[in-house]
Every structure is written in C-alpha cells, then in structure tokens.
C-alpha cells in the first residue's frame, strides 16, 4: 500500500491515533509559529555573534584570556545558528508538504463530490434507450431530408414529352410560315415600253428582291419624260 493510500485511509502513524489529532489548518498554524520563533532566535544569535567579535577585538593581545573566551562563545552561537538554519529548512519542507497534502485532499474531495453528482445524473439513463433514441433521431432526419428534396423538385404533372419531336414540329411550323410569306410576294409586271438604247442611261439600281419594283418604276418615269420632251420639241 502506498503512502498516499495509507494517509487517506488512516494507516499512518499520526493519522491512526484517532479523531483527536490536529487538523491540517492547526498543524500549519503551529509550524508557522515555530518558524517565526526560530527566525527571532536567529536574529538574537547573529547579534550575540557580532557582540562577541567586538569583545575579542577590544581585548586582543592585551587580554588574551578574555579575547579567547569571547571567540569561544562566538563559535557556540554560530553552531546554534547553523542548527537553527537546518531546523528551519526541515520545518519549511514539512509545512510545504502539509500544504500540498491538504490541497490534494480538498481536490480529491471535490472530485469525489463531482463523481457522485455525475453518478446521480446518469443513474436514470439507459444506454440502450439512448442508442434507440439516437437511431430514431437519425431516421427522422433522413425522412425530413427526403421530404425536403421531394418538395424542392420541379413537379412535372405528366407533361413529359419527347423534345426531339417537339423541335421537329416547330421546324415544320417555321417552314410553313416561310412558304406562306413567299407566296404572298408579288413580282413586278414587265414594262410595255422599250428600254433605253444606251446602257449608260440605265438608272442604277440594285436588283434585290425588295428593291426590284422601285427600280423599274424609276425607269418607266424617265422614259415618259423623254417622250414628253420629244413631243414638245
């Protein structure tokens, strides 16, 4: 069994003494008080060391006995100061370990509360029912998609015909209209008078289908004008 398991299960030497042991907060307060007391002791010893050094300097070789006694006291104070430094380091380590243990305990306690809450939430849930519910939701989504696709498609209502047949019929209609237009066109009559003898007098015209009648009309007019001029002379 690990040390952590022993600590939380009450298997440690300090934890096995029963419920009368100090709480983590009380132990931390005691450790801080001890640290403060030892810090004050350090300051006192440092002051005494400085004082004994001053005494040793004052006597020097004039009073070797007194100077040596002062140096011996300084050594004892320095030894005590070193011991206090070590004790403070141990207490500081113990305090940090206790703080971390207390923090871990609170974290585990809160995690336990959360696990119990999750268990309470999930106790009324059946995984099989959840699977069936998700399957039903998926099926209904598929049905809804099919309905949307059916609604969005263009309705033909039986109006499906062969486009090639329709195009052939349209071409026949266009050809009939074109033939009808050709039958309605009237060609100009042949003029009764002779054409001018000189080709240069022939009026310029373009023998197009639409302009053929106006050109012949102008030729007839010019011929009549020539006959009138000849009669008048």
TrEMBL record:
It is a peripheral membrane protein. GO terms for biological process: late endosome to vacuole transport via multivesicular body sorting pathway; protein transport; vesicle budding from membrane. It is found in: Cytoplasm, Cytosol; Late endosome membrane. Its main location: cytoplasm. It comes from the Eukaryota. GO terms for cellular component: cytoplasmic side of plasma membrane; cytosol; ESCRT III complex; late endosome membrane; multivesicular body. Keywords: Coiled coil, Cytoplasm, Endosome, Membrane, Protein transport, Transport. Residues 9-21 have a biased composition (Gly residues). It holds the Pfam family Snf7. Residues 1-25 are annotated as: Disordered. PANTHER family: CHARGED MULTIVESICULAR BODY PROTEIN (PTHR22761), CHARGED MULTIVESICULAR BODY PROTEIN 4C (PTHR22761:SF77). Belongs to the SNF7 family. This is CHM4C protein. It comes from Erythrocercus mccallii.
């Amino acid at each position: 069994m690990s040390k952590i398991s022993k600590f939380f299960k009450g298997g440690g030497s300090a934890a096995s003494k029963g419920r009368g042991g100090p709480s983590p907060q009380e132990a931390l307060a005691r450790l801080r008080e001890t640290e403060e007391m030892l810090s004050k002791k350090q300051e006192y010893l440092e002051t005494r060391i400085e004082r004994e050094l001053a005494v040793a300097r004052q006597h020097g070789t004039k009073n070797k006995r007194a100077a040596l006694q002062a140096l011996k006291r300084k050594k004892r104070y320095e030894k005590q100061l070193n011991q206090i430094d070590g004790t403070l380091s141990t207490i500081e380590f113990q305090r940090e370990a206790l703080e971390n243990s207390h923090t871990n305990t609170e974290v585990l306690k809160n995690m336990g509360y959360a696990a119990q809450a999750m268990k309470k939430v999930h106790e009324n849930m059946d995984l099989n029912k959840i699977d069936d519910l998700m399957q039903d939701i998926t099926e209904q989504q598929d049905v809804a998609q099919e309905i949307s696709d059916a609604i969005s498609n263009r309705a033909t209502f039986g109006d499906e015909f062969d486009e090639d047949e329709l195009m052939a019929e349209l071409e026949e209609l266009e050809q009939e209209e074109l033939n009808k237009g050709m039958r309605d066109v009237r060609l100009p009559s042949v003029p009764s008078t002779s054409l001018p003898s000189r080709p240069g007098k022939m009026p310029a015209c373009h023998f197009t289908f639409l302009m053929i009648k106006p050109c012949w009309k102008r030729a007839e007019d010019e011929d009549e004008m020539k006959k009138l001029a000849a009669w008048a002379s």
